[in-house]
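mind reviewing this stuff:

——
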Amino acid sequence: MNNGRCLPMVAFGTWQLGNDTVVKQAIKSAIQSGYRLIDTADIYGNEKMIGNILQELFNDGIINRNDLFITTKVWCNHFSKPSVLKSIRQSMKRLKLSYLDLVLLHYPTGFKENGEKYPKFKNGSIIPRTWQKDSYVETWQSMEQAQRNGYTRSIGVSNFNRAQIKTLLSNSTIKPVLNQVESHPNLKQSLLLQYLLENQILMQAYAPIRKADKELLNNQILTTIGQNHNKSSAHIALRWQLQRSVPIVVKSSNPKRIESNIQLFDFQLTDDEMKQIEQIEEKQRIYDIPGLMNHPDYPFNEQ
């Protein structure tokens, strides 16, 4: 990353992973399979559970804290300056950690801070914290303070577009290390990726196989390339990201799938195969927040 710290290329995602028992077994399987980055967030509602699992793993000597990279995210209803620091401290407490490796702003869109995760007007629109555009700049200043305080070793963003990154870079003293966004062969984010790399910021892809979308996984280009390497189409979609310098967040509760998803380092796609994947048709994103479109900092009108 641009601050000299290292980020594992494959992260284990925990959003909507399942109940306590499922999550516990999945994280144990992930660590056993070689994952070293656990990705969570305030809004996922599972930080406390993950904290308990991590403590158990540490106490049993299965893994050391220094060998793990833990990412969490500040939710949109904690975007005022004092609320950011409070949210991060609460995440640390729930995760039972003395420091975090990476904290992200989950979206560039601050919500009204009334305790509700999704505060809405009667018409269903999200209530912004302020109608002032680019208000995440103020929020970022608290993220910088969190890093200076030692709460986290690195800070970054999620779901930001190029214009928002540019605004942030013009108004920051600590550059974000990465931008975590939805990306897969149907949503390549090529312009965003190019801009981020030019500014020494990583793009990290969530939903890298479009929620195991059957149409994507049955795509002729991916399946044919997979046959060339004796790999699944999912492996090809994931390896494609790694070869364009995009770390990924993968998720599964199935132990065999968990192990399979990280088996990406024993083959390499050719330049021609990479170009073929670039030809796969673009589609609409699958993740958005209902009622967010009228927010002054809505990020998905452009890359």
Remarks:
- Residues 10-278 form a domain with the TIM Barrel fold (CATH 3.20.20.100).
